[in-house]
Structure formats: structure tokens, C-alpha cells
Amino acid sequence: MNYDKKKYKVWDWKSPMILHWILNPGLAFNELALGQTIPKVMLIDRESEKSMYQRSLVPCPHCGTQHNGLKWSSQNNLAFKNWFGYYCDNCKGIIPVHRNLTSLIILTLTFPIWGWFRKSLKQNWLDKQPERYKNLTYELPEQKIKAKKWLKEGLSWGFFMYIIMNVVAPLIVGEDITKPGLLLGLPMWLIIGFGWGFVMKLWMNRKGKANKAKNEE
Ligand SMILES: [Zn+2]
After folding, report:
1. 3-state class of 164 per DSSP?
2. What separation in Å is there between the alpha carbon of 92 and the centre of ligand 1?
């Protein structure tokens, strides 16, 4: 599909946030367990004064609708459970999404187990979608992004990953939980969590051109 590149910045796999989504192994958990995902193509309005969230559009390749990116916000309870992609509430199609590399490997290795249920799982999921897309809101209070939320979110994600990687994962594969792992893992994951939260904050608060010009005056 062709997009108006003057009006929109097109985000595909080469943009940092999407590349991060693909490469960070920790996000496999977000994807597989929580159903968090990122669409194949995102359009960012270059001119709008609003924050990144508010000026992102998700185009549906099936019907051409440009969905407001805020549709899949946590306020709408649509940020999670998108295992098969983003559901298009206009044409009932599925908007393709990127897969995290680690979860792709996990999915490939476990295909013999879940492959049998793939069709029914997908149908089940599809049947539930229309209900989820009633009563949508596109408002995101400005202070909600500006607040220190990113710090809390980043750190709690890091801590969560620490528990998963150093306690839960060894238990599952039957390895010993090692002291150095426990000691080194915590600061490491907190730093990664901090970095992630910070990058998210930077990206999400970045304003369009119109606003930048105003600030420079
Ligand atoms: Zn559509």
C-alpha cells in the first residue's frame, strides 16, 4: 500500500520501536502470554501537535480504514489479548502485526502442540472481538503520559522479567536457581526496564513538526 509520506512518517520494521519489539527477547512474554503486539505498519502524522500516541494511525490493509492508534489503548482494554493481530472493527479483518523473534522461535518449536488447535483458537478469538470494540474512547489525558508513569512501568516490567528469567524459567527447565544469577539479574533487569520505560516515554511524547517550530520561536 502507498501512503502519503509527506503527511505521515511510515513506521515499519526499520523504525527503532518496532525493531526493539522484534529483537528484545523479554517481549516474547508480553506477546505470547499477554497478547500485546505491534502492527506491521503505523503512520505517524508529521504535522499534528499531539503526542506520539495521539497522532499514530494504524491502516487496515483490507479495507483501507486508518484507525486511530488510541483504539488499542489500555483505556479501551484493547492493549492486550491481540494474539492474532489487531482486529479491524470496520471490515472484521485482521490487521497484520510484527512478531517478536523469540516468540517466533518458541511458536515454531511448539507448533506440534498448538498447531492442532490453531484454527479453533483463532475462530474463538475472532468471535470475541466485536464485543471488545464497543464503547471506544480516543481520549488520553495529557498528564497521563507526562507523569512518571513510564518509570514505574519500566521498572515493574524489569522486575517482572527478572523473576521470570531468574526464578521461573530455571524452575521450568529444571535448572538450579543460582546466586550470581539472582544477584546480577536484578540490577541488570532494572536497568533494562528503566531504559525501556525511558525510550517509550521519549517516543510517546515526541511532538509533530508544527509544535517543534512553535517551541523554537
Ligand atoms: Zn479493515
Report:
1. helix
2. 6
d(CA 125, CA 109): 22
How many angstroms is it from 216 CA to the middle of ligand 1?
39
What distance separates the 2 farthest-apart alpha carbons in the chain? 61
C-alpha grid cell for residue 166?
A: 531468574
Does the global pTM surpass 0.85?
no
Give me ligand 1 centre to Cα 175, in Å.
46
The rounded Å distance from CA 59 to ligand 1 centre is: 8
pLDDT recorded at residue 67: 95
Q: What is the mean pLDDT of residues 190-195?
A: 90
- Residue 11 to residue 8: CA distance in whole angstroms: 9
Distance 163 CA to ligand 1 centre (A): 39
